[in-house]
Design brief:
mainly alpha, 13 helices, about 75% helix
Length: about 280
């Protein structure tokens, strides 16, 4: 008597290498996030914002920088992009809250996390993939448009305007890389701590404004210098460190923006370490 096979037939074909498997998962995650309607709308809006400096350069570029030295032109170009910092930070915060923040919490609440970790993937790989895919997503949305814009901006300037393309491009890249890193860490930090996607999103969005409010109260009531109240996550720290890239960087003294920059890098590192520890030690999976 012939017996039919029941259940799954074991796979005996070629298997993906660990690197190829992780890269496949990484780009699939990024693709799924980028193709969301909200991501496309925000990307188009940021591209629209970043078109204004280019239009300005095409229309009055030569007159705008007339008589300026190269260093002054560098700072003037950078200031064009720092002016949009708050808007892009706000849009990035919204994306971090509605797209990055639910990523771990929804898998914990919905139940797929135990299934994912039952596969040949470690918790370290899982967290690294979540971080790398989230960072690539934030980088694409809030870093790529300014970089394209500044390239077009410099390319549209007349030959009579002298500037350092490497200086300007490296500063713009540094500013928006810090933004992307900070917002990614904030979203994953909330996602690992909160028990539901909704609470993670709300925590991500309101935490910066709460800390900004607390910092303002401390500065007003205790009469502390600003450098002791740089605990705000958005306008108090990131924007101040951004403006420092426009200033003259000569000199070795630690100014207020240097401290803001150090804090803008240290805080997301601590948030990522906390998120990793929570995922690593989670007991329900």
């Amino acid at each position: 008597m012939r017996l039919d096979k029941r259940g799954y037939v074991p796979y005996s074909g070629p298997r993906l290498s660990i690197l190829k498997r992780d890269l496949t998962y990484l780009f699939l995650e990024v693709k799924n996030m980028l193709l969301k309607k909200r991501s496309i709308v925000v990307l188009v809006f940021i591209l629209f914002l970043m078109s204004f400096p280019v239009i300005t350069s095409l229309t009055i570029g030569e007159f705008m920088f007339a008589g300026m030295k190269q260093e002054e032109v560098n700072q003037a170009i950078l200031s064009q992009y720092v002016e949009f910092s708050f808007i892009i930070l706000f849009l990035g915060l919204v994306l971090s809250a509605i797209t990055v923040a639910p990523r771990i919490s929804e898998e914990v609440k919905g139940g797929p996390l135990p299934l994912i970790l039952s596969r040949p993937i470690t918790r370290d790989e899982y967290f690294l993939l979540k971080f790398s895919s989230s960072f690539l997503y934030m980088f694409t949305l809030i870093c790529v448009p300014p970089l394209l814009s500044v390239l077009l901006f410099m390319g549209s300037l007349p030959p009579s305007v002298h500037f350092s393309a490497l200086y300007v491009l490296s500063r713009v890249l540094a500013i928006y890389l810090i933004y992307a890193f900070f917002l990614t860490a904030l979203g994953l930090f909330s996602s690992s701590l909160m028990g539901s996607p909704t609470s993670a999103s709300l925590f991500t969005f309101f935490l910066p404004w709460i800390t900004e409010f607390v910092g303002g109260i401390l500065r007003a009531t205790l009469d502390l210098p600003q450098k002791y109240t740089l605990i705000s996550l958005i306008s108090g720290t990131l924007l101040r460190s951004s403006s420092g890239f426009v200033e003259n960087l000569k000199g070795s003294s630690l100014t207020l923006w240097h401290q803001a920059l150090a804090l803008a890098i240290l805080l997301p590192v601590l948030m990522l370490f906390t998120a990793y520890t929570v995922v690593k030690e989670r007991q329900e999976v």
